[in-house]
Amino acid sequence: MAKAKKAKAGAKRTARKTSRKVVKLAARKPAKATGAKKANGNGLPRPSAKPYGQAGKALEGVKILDFTHVQSGPTCTQLLAWFGADVIKIERPGIGDITRGQLRDVPNADSLYFTMLNHNKRSITVDSKNPKGKEIIERLIKYCDVLVENFAPGALDRMGFTWEHIHKLNPRMIVASVKGFGPGPYEDCKVYENIAQCTGGSASTTGFRDGPPLVTGAQIGDSGTGLHLALGIVAALYQRNRTGRGQKVLAAMQDGVLNLCRVKLRDQQRLKHGPLTEYSQYGEGIPFGEATPRAGNDSGGGQPGWIVKCKGWENDPNAYVYFITQAPVWEKICDVIGKPEWKTDPDYATPRARLPRLREIFDTIEQWTMTKTKLEVMEICNPLDIPVGPILSMKELAEDESLRKTGTVVEVDHPTRGKYLTVGNPIKLSDSISEVKRSPLLGEHTEEILTKVLGYSAKELAEIKSSGAITAEDKKKAAA
Ligand code: CAO
Fold first, then answer.
1. Are 360 and 353 in contact (CB under 8 A)?
2. pLDDT of res. 5
3. 222 flagged as catalytic
4. CA of 151 to the centre of ligand 1 (A)
């Protein structure tokens, strides 16, 4: 009883103290607004007074040690560079990223494969198997915030850069990797784009039912996984603000592709409960098997769609349009295609009634679209809110004025290959405007990074040069 009384009195004292504190705080005069740097009451900086787009870049100050090659890793680091990170790409002396020489269109110039994936980066050549080269990389690890790599499984460890070693050198470092597979039976496998498309569920669900599995032109395995990795890195940087320590970030290509094929795993589970009625095979009376089938051009959602021919399809492989029979605009569709009677006919009036007749419905829509060009179909349907999409070729996209205006398609000048087109940052931030700068030449920034970033003296630089750590094999031999 006495104990309870004591506790009650204590609680009252605490409550009084707390309320006194609250009164005191409330009475405090608001801090004078003295500029963007002063913190708000919540500890966060005050909103910048600078105009939007002039307050620096989103990832300004973040330093990325870019140990990536080919497509998946470079996609990720290019995005980070567009958001303002300082990306230092380490490449093998004399060779560099293998894509520099792959699919070359201009002799002796970096290929478009390379240039279009490595904008806004700096390039340093370092032989990671040379002792002096290892020392340089260790210094870079201490200097940078994130190491990004997409080597074959185990390659980074074989160089001596295990997570434990990196973490010891720089406990704040985030180590981000693309691998083909996550932990499991295939974790040691090398993987390229189409392997990921096949093992991540995309190929089995792409193509026509009566044909073989198909890969898609969208690089969902490589660029898609790079995109996943970039998000993981930004999240890890955010968490590091709280924890003060780095972590490993893994984006496995199989996982990334499966994530993008989420709706197909949805359909796999729906199969247990009956046929997939929105797939045109249902209307055609073809039974479903055990796995999600290939769906041709069927829409993956609840609004049936299909690709139909347009005027000129006989000679133009892209004279087609994707047409969606969205339920809310069904009546407008009936009027446009000259079938007003379908609005009230019980066989066509409701989405459910239409499902077994989709083939016939799209054939009828096609009779109409074949009388118009794909852009005319768009001009007629858009004001009526009927969702349609012309099949735009790469040529049309390259020439599209509106994409140039938004910076999605950009012309870049390059010292050895001249002007070329690229895809700029597809993600637009209103206060962090991306500018696309050309990709670096092999080792273009080696000396700059060694002296200005890592602080090596002229004498040390000379030693590094003679050690072979930054020179190509043939040059090393010639010097010997
Ligand atoms: N100095 C010295 N050696 C270097 C180096 C440098 N700067 N950079 C790389 N190397 C070495 C690596 O250490 C490795 O040597 P070991 O095999 O002796 O350990 C060697 O170069 C080759 O690396 P790799 O095995 O990663 O490259 P690969 O061309 O044989 O394979 C790929 C390419 C993509 C199949 C493989 O890297 C991979 O599976 N990566 C993970 C998944 C991925 O990102 N795939 C997408 C690629 S884009 O289509």
1. no
2. 44
3. yes
4. 4
List the beta bridge partners of residue 179.
252
DSSP string of 124-193, one letter each residue: EE--TTSHHHHHHHHHHHHH-SEEEE-PSTTHHHHTT--HHHHHHH-TT-EEEEEESS-SSTTTT----H
Q: Is the CB of 299 under 6 A from ligand 1?
A: no
Give the length of the chain: 480
Q: How confident is the model at residue 472 (pLDDT cuts 50, 70, 90)?
A: confident
Kindly state if the Cβ of 324 falls inside 6 Å of ligand 1: no
Candidate from 66, 136, 151, 161 with most ligand 1 atoms within 8 A of CB, to mutate: 151
| Distance from C-alpha of 70 to C-alpha of 193, rounded to nearest angstrom | 10
Nearest CA owner, ligand 1 atom 31:
152
Q: Is the CB of 178 under 6 A from ligand 1?
A: yes
Sign of dihedral through CA atoms 47, 48, 53, 58?
A: negative
Closest CA to 235 of 146, 160, 117: 146
pLDDT digits (tens, 9 = 90+) for 232-280: 999 999 999 999 999 999 999 999 999 999 999 999 999 999 999 989 8
Q: CB of 169 closer than 6 A to ligand 1?
A: no
List 178's β-bridge partners, or say none: 251
pLDDT digits (tens, 9 = 90+) for 35-54: 445 666 778 889 999 999 99
Rounded to whole angstroms, how far apart are CA atoms 205 and 285?
19
- Specify the pLDDT at position 38: 61
Name the catalytic one among 222, 316, 413, 474: 222
Question: Strand pairing partners for 104?
Answer: none
Most informative mutation of 162, 190, 229 for ligand 1 (most atoms within 8 A of CB)? 190
pLDDT bucket at 283, cuts 50 / 70 / 90 = confident
Q: Is 405 in contact with 416 (CB distance < 8 Å)?
A: no
In contact, 439 and 115? CB cutoff 8 Å: yes
How far apart CA 188 and CA 197 sit, in angstroms, is 18
Nearest-CA residue for ligand 1 atom 6 is: 92
Helix, coil or strand: residue 250: strand
Question: Using CA atoms, how far apart are residues 122 and 66, in angstroms rounded to an integer?
Answer: 9
Q: Ligand 1: which atom is nearest the Cα of residue 151?
A: 26
Q: What is the pTM of this model?
A: 0.90
> pLDDT tens digits, residue range 180-234?
999 999 999 999 999 999 999 999 999 999 999 999 999 999 999 999 999 999 9
Q: How far is ligand 1, taken at its centre, from the CA of residue 315, in Å? A: 44
Average pLDDT value over all residues in the chain = 92
pLDDT of residue 450: 98
pLDDT at 300: 77
Helix (H) or strand (E) holding 352: helix 351-354
